Amino acid sequence: MTASTTRRTAAKSRIAAAGAIAVAGALLLTACGDQTKNGPSNRAASAPLADLLPKEIRDKGTIKVGSDIAYPPVEFKDKSGRTVGIDPDIAAAIGKQLGVTLQFENGTFDTLITGLRSKRYDLAMSSMTDTKDRQQGIDSETKKKVGEGVDFVDYFTAGVSIYTRKGDDQGITSWADLCGKKIAVQRGTVSHDLAKDESKKCTGGRKIAIETFDNDLEAQTRLRSGGVDAASSDFPVAAYAVKTSGGGKDFQIVGEQVEAAPYGIAVAKGNDKLTNAVRAALEAIIKNGQYGKIISKWGVEAGAVTEAKVNGGS
User: Fold this and answer.
1) pLDDT, tens digit (0-9, with 9 covering 90-100), for 88-117
2) CB-neighbour burial class of residue 128 (10 A; exposed 0-12, middle 13-18, buried 19+)
3) 154: three-class secondary structure by DSSP
4) Total-model pTM
5) Residues 21, 73: contact at Cβ < 8 Å?
6) Are 40 and 95 in contact (CB under 8 A)?
7) What is the reported pLDDT for 300?
8) Among candidate residues 128, 96, 97, the one with its CA nearest the CA of residue 4
């Protein structure tokens, strides 16, 4: 989910998308196993940045992470039902620096920030674009204040892509070409915002027919069945769908990705100590090379960041 709103809810169909990277799941389990082998106090004692955490989290040994776990390859379930992907791998590495386990809990994407406010989660990590509206608690469509906002620790950069059925691009090469056509998107994402904004520009009564879904995999299913002309999601997700769906025979990306912006790990406003601890841990794994290895493993080097920033989105 890139430049203006939120990006991507777990669905059973996500399991089918995960077959190509079962090995990644095994790697993640190894990392998580290292974190949970000992009790919280033992893990914290051996972790270089444990003292940066709030005491109640350090003592508990667990950070609850809200995530929409249906967005391969960023976060999804493998065949055994385990949470794997870019975000869980980065979270596991951050957890080792802090001496805690980052425990992913599934939730619908457009409810994750609310979950932070209600303290259901300590963090939200779900391909969520860092934007000023989210930082300030502003609804991106109405521009009205709807909450306190969140702080972001930025860890990746991604744009938004359009994709169609393979060999059937409907003449679509840009967002303007969607006028008079149907598109499937995940509700509350930047793709959803872009489609609404572009539809307002369409002339001659040729608006974009926008179909919204709880998660990106449902949008892919709608496109695959021929119910819409195109779908849109963040570039890493679109590229993964193109590569894996139907053995690479279902979809193709059309045009260039747009709205490149940072993904951020969201923290509720006022929780500065946790924000700073996560930022320091991310900076540490960037410097020690572990972050780069994770990014390379998933083939998304183009989105790598070189430093950990707070609230770097616009």
Assistant:
1) 999 999 999 999 999 999 999 989 999 999
2) buried
3) strand
4) 0.75
5) yes
6) no
7) 87
8) 128
